[in-house]
Amino acid sequence: MYDINHKQYILRQTSGRTLNMSYKPSAGLTLSYLSKKGVWSDTVTVTKDILPGYSVCMDNYDRIHLLCQDRQGNIKYMSHDNEKWHSKIILRSRNLTPYDKNLNMIWDDKKIYFFYTLKHSEKNILSYQIQNSMGEVSDPKVIDYVSDSPTPYIILNDPDGSIYVFYTYQDIKYSRVGYKKYIQSKRSWSDFSPITDFNGESSVLSCSCDSSGISYVCWQRQLSQNFELLLSLKHAESGKWNDSILVSSSHKPFINASLIIRDNNITIYWIEESDILYSTSNNKGHTWNSPETYAFQENEQVQCISYISNTPDKTAKQFRYTTPGTITNGYNLAFLNDSAPPEKSVENVKVHPESFQSEVLNTLKMLSSDVSEIKRFMTELDAKLVLLENSQKQFELELGRYSSKLAITDSDLLKIISTLNETKQLHEVNNQTNGKPAPLTVEAPVEVVNTQVLSSNTPIMPGAGFASITPEFLRNLQKK
Fold it and tell me: Could you please report the per-residue DSSP string of 401-469?
């Protein structure tokens, strides 16, 4: 049965790895991975001590965070740091009979915000706790009383990092849809602000925010025997909520409803018995098409799936949507144009026209983005190659200078060694003539010069005017 409060989660990490987290009464919370061929692995049990109605989020570092109840009704926080699971109880239950506490959580700038409802005197109290970057969890604090509807509150975290909680405020005089904003500097919540003047039976269904900062809230109200599905929006510049826009009306309440924003296109869907009905707007929600029916392939079991993506090919920092989908063979998500089917024949596959058109446009956008990225990369690569070539030329010039200096140094060394050897040999001749032993010789290194022994007719001091002075000439002169 499709139930927006009992979801399965599909998580796509930065590496492209895809995970599925789901609850089974016999196995508890399980985890499986999607192979490259689009086949799910065998499930692994994360914890058996858990009740349905859990909440999952993923931070920008691909770490998984889980808020759940154990079988005693204690609220438990679990996290996976890409190596192992960690667990701790953040609030112990005083009620022996567990009940649905409408758990929700968000990760924002190294902090984790936990939300849940507690029953007190037959009323629902919306409460929260915050875990800081050191892992310390604050004491529970109350936000406000909320209704006992299927979706008593909705959390919105806009691109600026502001956190809003939307709900129906009820007292003796009023019953209005509105919100409170968390004020970081005061560490408290603002006063309640209504988004509509309507005072009567109403409830919040879904909310989201686009990249330009426009906030959208989908809600319904009851007029006599009729229900109306409405959209309210607020521009970031003005900070004011526009008049509510009618999306659809029915004699049945709009349940399991949610809105999905992709670029300028907005889709609101709801479940009516076994049918998925939806309406679309291509002008930021100002006008809406007539409702249509979305159809999956026959005999596929449709699940409520919360889709969270950190993959770098997405245009936003992180995508998080709740949508109908199937996960029997790979996965197929309605309205998001995202699927991972296994390898199979395409014969007899029914393609929804709206989904096919959007998928083609999305593929073209991705290809255009890839081409632009490749061009940018090639330009950067060319610039780096020019720098490398200039560096190589400079290095070659420096190497030439050092080679020239080294050649000059070697030449000078050879001349010095040659002069020393000549002087030494002359000294040996003089000593031999005087009958004294020759001193120890100083030989030049073999690798530098190969000294030749002077013959008797070799000039001692070659050069102009001294060519006739040889060892033989000196010996004859001594005898005379």
Answer: HHHHHHHHHHHHHHHHHHHHHHHHHHHHHHHHHTTPPPPPP-PPPTTT--PPPPPTTS-SS-STTTTT-
Strand partners for 64: 58, 80
Beta-carbon contacts of 308 under 8 Å, excluding residues fewer than 6 positions away, are 9, 10, 11, 12, 56, 57, 58, 318, 319, 320
Of 147, 148, 155, which Cα lies nearest the Cα of 179?
155
Q: Residue 176 belongs to what H/E stretch?
A: strand 175-183
b/e code 112-130 from CB counts within 10 Å (16+ = b): bbbbbbbeeeeebbbbbbb
Nearest Cα residue to 206 out of 177, 175, 185, 182:
177
Identify the residue with better confidence: 408 or 323.
323
Question: pLDDT tens-digit profile of 83-97?
Answer: 899 999 999 998 878
> Quick one: angle between helices 353-433 and 471-479, nearest 10?
20
What confidence score (pLDDT) does residue 423 get?
80
**Three-state DSSP state, 298:** coil
pLDDT band at 160 (very low <50, low <70, confident <90, very high): confident
Share of the chain above pLDDT 90, in %: 46
Distance between CA 426 and CA 419 in Å, rounded?
11
* φ, ψ dihedrals at 382, nearest 5°: -60, -45
Mean pLDDT within 54-83: 94
CB-count exposure of residue 270 (10 Å: 0-12, 13-18, 19+) = buried
Task: Return d(Cα 20, Cα 4) in angstroms, integer.
Answer: 17
pLDDT confidence of residue 280: 95
Interval 320-354: pLDDT, tens: 788 999 988 889 999 887 677 654 443 434 444 54
Question: What radius of gyration do the chain's Cα atoms show?
Answer: 42
**pLDDT over 60 (residue 277):** yes
Q: How far apart are CA 245 and CA 262, in angstroms?
A: 19
